[in-house]
Specification:
By secondary structure, the chain is mainly α. The protein has helices at 2-17, 28-52, 63-77, 90-114, 122-134, 155-166, 172-196, 203-212, 217-221, 256-277, 280-294, 298-313, 320-348, 365-370, 375-389, 392-417, 430-459, 463-475, 477-491, 509-514, 532-541, 563-574, 614-617, and strands at residues 522-524, 544-546, 582-586, 598-604, 607-613.
Length: 618
């Protein structure tokens, strides 16, 4: 509701200020997609206010809801002059509702069955960074005491923080699940909106192609199975995490790159509409969307800015200079809100160091394309259809394909020649290009499928829907086999799906201790098999950690990105570590500690643990 009112306000403003109103073809699917962009833009705006106020926005439970109510009130009072009624009958909603239910049955069923789809690892960092913002840090510095500085785009964390503040009594766990739902429903919408620029009526087909067409791994598997570690892939690149077929990205958990892909899809649609209409104000919105991509994901911003440049190149000669300023300018300026301070710290602290312990699997091209299954021939058919149409929209989206191919070649070259890219090798990695390729492939496949359906329907109204249904059923078999397998993996707490274990129950020690902590204190990590407890306390409170152990990053266990700060961290740890404020320990070891020095207690791994003030434990 909030984002819809933002959208209608902005849309009405544009329609009133321009003689032609909004570009033709901006229907309900586009409005829903842009509503997501509007909500992310709202979150980013709150983040700017949060940083300028030194952490006073997200740390206050009143500010965000108050601003949300103000926007709702403005949307209700302000007359809607853009878009009007959507003109859709109930019957038109039925296919979309059915698709939504099918997606829930495949991709949300593991979460419903087990209770959480959050996976330890990257999600732990993102939850900790979000907690730091919720507890007063202006930007999330990370778990390192004193030496932590922000070096990761905070857009994802701003959206999570906004969700948490808008819905009282929720936290980062629930926000993670909400982000998963947002991506699950939003990405097919992005595929649909791109496809609608290529072929009338291709939206639903593209949404299906982008969310339900997997590979043929089921032919080899012949059973329920799913591989949660790409290095252990058994069926090519199908039925595996981080597959080049991005339908597997729709399984939990949600990560920043997935939200970035969703906003990239919207930016692509906006660029197409801006080029076709040559409307300056609409181009400015497209440029801002490009910049928002960069607040979430650097690799996808590189793609987005390349798409924007192509949009400028394909604009009419008379409008090219205006489009350059409108598309590229906001794309760079909005991105600079995060990138500017990071660039300053990059110079100040001696550059970046690579903190990626292992890059993702780089699938051979035949293996990767085979994982697309039936999507590949459909996408090729759609490309031919778009090429023959010769429309402005088709030319722009075809240019996106060309840019994606170039980025894939550069990513392969980076791997071949071992380019470090100033400590950021993931900026050009095939794992960041395949999702974009799949997004575009799904749009073209939707156009090809819709055109094929109409061709068959003219010959046989009975056979056409049966053929399409059979194609979708065969294409989705791998997903139906993967979903219950993932459910079992989560139930057994395998492959880092840990958060349904008793250590993370609401009354467990971790949560009780986290309530007493924050980013302004340092916690001592236990120096035994329970060392990970320190990191979990960071995850749920944003507290800094002393003594964390991680064999993947010797000497830089807390993954400090700046060279000089990482060097100082090694020196401090070699001389005894940082001064700590709190120490977690088993209750059996807390004999003699004054009761008023114990600030929290609860069960952890089968015994009682306590959190004590460090001076009392000495």
């Amino acid at each position: 509701m909030l984002s819809e009112f933002i959208l209608h306000w902005a849309g009405g403003h544009i329609a009133r200020r321009t003689p032609t109103g909004l570009p033709e073809g901006l229907g309900l699917p586009e409005q829903l997609l842009f509503a997501i962009v509007a909500f992310v833009a709202f979150s980013a705006s709150l983040m700017v206010l949060h940083a300028l106020s030194r952490g006073a926005v997200f740390s206050n439970p009143v500010v965000v809801p108050a601003l949300g109510v103000a926007i709702l009130a403005a949307g209700i009072v302000r007359p809607r002059t853009a878009g009007g009624g959507h003109g859709l009958s109930l019957r038109a909603w039925i296919p979309a509702v059915v698709l939504g239910l099918v997606l829930m049955a495949i991709f949300v069923a593991p979460v419903i069955a087990v209770g959480s789809g959050v996976r330890a690892g990257d999600s732990s960092l993102h939850m900790g960074w979000t907690e730091q913002m919720l507890r007063g840090e202006s930007v999330p510095p990370g778990p390192a005491p004193e030496l932590g500085r922000n070096a990761y785009p905070w857009g994802f964390h701003a959206v999570m923080a906004t969700m948490i503040r808008l819905v009282p009594a929720t936290g980062t766990f629930i926000a993670q699940e909400a982000m998963h739902l947002l991506f699950l429903l939003g990405l097919p919408l992005g595929c649909a909106c791109l496809a609608r620029r290529l072929y009338s009526g291709a939206g639903l087909a593209a949404a299906v192609c982008g969310s339900l067409i997997a590979g043929f791994g089921w032919v080899s598997a012949r059973r329920v199975d799913f591989v949660a570690t790409p290095l252990e892939a058994r069926y090519g690149a199908d039925m595996v995490v981080a597959s080049p077929n991005s339908v597997y990205e729709l399984f939990p958990p949600a990560l920043p790159r997935e939200l970035g892909l969703l906003i990239l899809a919207a930016a692509g649609v906006l660029i197409v509409l801006a080029v076709r209409s040559e409307n300056l104000r609409f181009a400015l919105i497209a440029g801002a969307a490009v910049g928002i991509v960069g607040l979430i994901s650097l690799p996808f911003w590189i793609t987005a800015i390349a798409w924007a440049a192509l949009g400028v190149a394909l604009s009419g000669a008379g409008a090219r200079r205006r489009m350059l300023g409108a598309l590229i300018g906001p794309g760079v300026l909005v991105f600079g809100i995060w990138a500017g301070p990071v660039a300053f710290n990059y110079i100040r602290y001696g550059g970046f160091i690579n903190v990626t312990s292992q890059l993702g699997v780089e699938w051979p091209l035949p293996t990767a394309l085979a994982a697309w299954g039936l999507l590949l021939p459909l996408a090729l058919a759609g490309i031919v259809l778009a090429w023959r149409s010769g429309t402005t929209s088709a030319r722009v989206i075809l240019s996106f394909v060309g840019a994606t191919v170039v980025l894939m070649l550069l990513a392969r070259a980076r791997s071949e020649f071992d380019w470090d890219l100033v400590g950021h090798p993931t900026a050009l990695h095939p794992g960041r290009v395949w999702p974009v390729a799949h997004l575009l492939g799904s749009a073209f496949a939707g156009a090809g499928l819709a055109a094929g359906f109409m061709w068959m329907k003219r010959r046989s109204e009975f056979f056409a829907p049966i053929a399409v249904a059979a194609l979708v059923i065969v294409g989705s078999i791998s997903l139906w086999l993967s979903s219950p397998a993932l459910t079992e993996i989560i139930k057994k707490h395998e492959d880092s799906w840990l958060y349904t274990r008793e250590e993370f129950a609401p009354d467990a020690f971790i949560h009780r201790a986290a309530e007493q902590l924050g980013p302004d204190v340092v916690v001592q990590a236990p120096q035994d098999e329970n060392n990970v407890l320190g990191f979990w306390l960071f995850q749920f409170s944003g507290a800094r950690i002393n003594g964390h152990s991680d064999s993947r990053y010797p000497g830089n266990e807390l993954r400090i990105r700046y060279e000089d700060l990482a060097h100082r961290y090694r020196e401090v740890m070699a001389s005894g570590g940082f001064e700590v404020d709190y120490i977690p320990m088993p209750a059996s070891e807390a004999a003699g500690i004054p009761e008023d020095a114990i600030v929290a207690e609860g069960p952890f791994r089968g015994e009682r643990w306590v959190l004590v003030h460090a001076p009392a434990a000495e």
